[in-house]
């Protein structure tokens, strides 16, 4: 049976991660102008290679399948609204992506290298060196990616594009990006100034909104939890 408290904490952490990286999903498509003029050395990619595209704060990952095809996990709210493949196969817009993250709806899909990178520089197999793990054979990596194509639940913390790629490449689904974010949250929680700040905000909400259950309970409960966690 799932723990409601753990689920609530997980949900809050995911939303914090989304907000902290909101620049990634700006109103314009990332690298829109650059994408039209970027040329990629596709012949240098091998089937099963991990392609890594740095963004403003996050990094997007995919598995190269050959023939200018990249398998990658993409949140997309449209998947929950229609089964029309002509619509869902189009390049995912930022609005579709953001709503997909919030709705936890995604798919492991295949796009061209150009659509995958959208004008950004591509790093190849950088995770091998960063994680210092032994990679599976490239053909096995590509086959794992192909078997997972289709709809999948999405979670910024527990099931994102990095989890997909590391599972295919190393046999274990991990996400250093999500782990780093959780460590930063732990540091904030352990800082006793967070307790003081939350207490001040709680008192301010009571003063501004009046003494009521929806103001008093958070004003007491949040600082208490932070104090105990610290």
Account of the 3D structure:
The model is unreliable at 22-36 (pLDDT under 50). With 230 residues, the chain is an alpha+beta fold. The protein has helices at 4-20, 32-35, 85-88, 94-103, 113-117, 126-131, 138-147, 161-170, 176-190, 192-209, 213-229, and strands at residues 50-54, 59-66, 69-75, 105-111, 123-124, 150-153. The chain has a 6-stranded antiparallel beta sheet with strand order 5-1-2-3-4-6. It has 2 domains: 33-174, endopeptidase domain like (from Nostoc punctiforme) (endopeptidase fold (from Nostoc punctiforme)), CATH 3.90.1720.10; 191-229. It is built from 11 helices and 6 strands. Residues 50-177 form the LRAT domain. It is a single-pass membrane protein.
């Amino acid at each position: 049976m799932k723990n409601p408290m753990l689920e609530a904490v997980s949900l809050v952490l995911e939303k914090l991660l989304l907000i902290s990286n909101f620049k990634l999903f700006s109103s314009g498509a990332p690298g829109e102008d650059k994408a039209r003029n970027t040329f990629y050395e596709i012949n240098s990619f091998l089937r099963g290679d991990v392609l890594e595209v740095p963004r403003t704060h996050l990094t997007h990952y995919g598995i190269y399948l050959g023939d200018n095809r990249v398998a990658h996990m993409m949140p997309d709210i449209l998947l929950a609204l229609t089964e029309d493949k002509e619509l869902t196969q189009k390049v995912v817009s930022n609005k579709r992506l953001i709503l997909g993250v919030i709705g936890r709806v995604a798919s492991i899909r295949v796009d061209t290298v150009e659509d995958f990178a959208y004008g950004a520089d591509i790093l190849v197999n950088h995770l091998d060196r960063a994680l210092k793990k032994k990679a599976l054979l490239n053909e096995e990596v590509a086959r794992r990616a192909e078997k997972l194509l289709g709809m999948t639940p999405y979670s910024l913390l527990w099931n994102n594009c990095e989890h997909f790629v590391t599972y295919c490449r190393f046999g274990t689904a991990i996400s250093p990006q999500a782990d780093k974010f959780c460590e930063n949250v732990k540091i904030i929680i352990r800082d006793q100034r967070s307790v003081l700040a939350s207490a001040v905000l709680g008192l301010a909400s009571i003063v501004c909104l009046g003494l009521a259950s929806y103001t008093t309970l958070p004003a007491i409960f949040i600082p208490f939890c932070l104090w105990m966690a610290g």
